[in-house]
Amino acid sequence: MFKKRRFLLVEDNDAHAKLVMLQFRDNTNGLTIDRVPDGESALAYLRRQGPYAGKDRPDVVLLDLKLPRVNGHEVLRQLKADEDLRGIPVIVLTTSQAEKDMVEAYREYANSYLIKPFDFGSFQRMIEDVANYWGEWNQHP
């Protein structure tokens, strides 16, 4: 029996967030997902500060790079520098195909770098695969 995982989606684009959230709710066998719209809120959520004080920490973070307030690279740097948070897998989920973004994300210890497909069906399949792998098959404490 697999432990059901909690995901945190850090995404400022409402349309992208809605697609991810719907895919999780419709097709991921009970996995839970919360969303925050910017990097500052992501750090507060992960540190359980302010309005997120009562939240459970996520098992996996889906992180966009182009975020307001604190960008995704800085979120990744701070998360991986924090001894209490660094073990949380981070999947970069972005539209950026820039090699410099990919190289930087992996240097900041991203666990995966996924480019959002423009095709709706491909996007749905990607999110379903992410949920299956990171939510069920991948084992971590």
Short description:
Helix content is 43%, strand content 16%. It is an alpha/beta fold and 141 residues long. The chain has a single domain, classed as Rossmann fold, CATH 3.40.50.2300.
Note the main attributes of this structure.
five-stranded parallel sheet; alpha/beta; 141 residues; 5 helices; Rossmann fold; single chain
Describe this structure in words.
The protein has 141 residues and is α/β, with parallel strands linked by helices. It has a single domain, classed as Rossmann fold (3-Layer(aba) Sandwich), CATH 3.40.50.2300. Helix content is 43%, strand content 16%. It is built from 5 helices and 5 strands; from the N terminus they run E-H-E-H-E-H-E-H-E-H. It has helices spanning 14-27, 39-47, 72-81, 99-107, 120-137, and strands at 6-10, 32-36, 60-63, 90-94, 112-115. It has a 5-stranded parallel beta sheet with strand order 2-1-3-4-5, with helices on both faces. Helix 4 links the parallel strand 4 and strand 5 (112-115). The longest helix is centred in the C-terminal third of the chain and has 18 residues, at 120-137. It is globular and about 35 Å long.
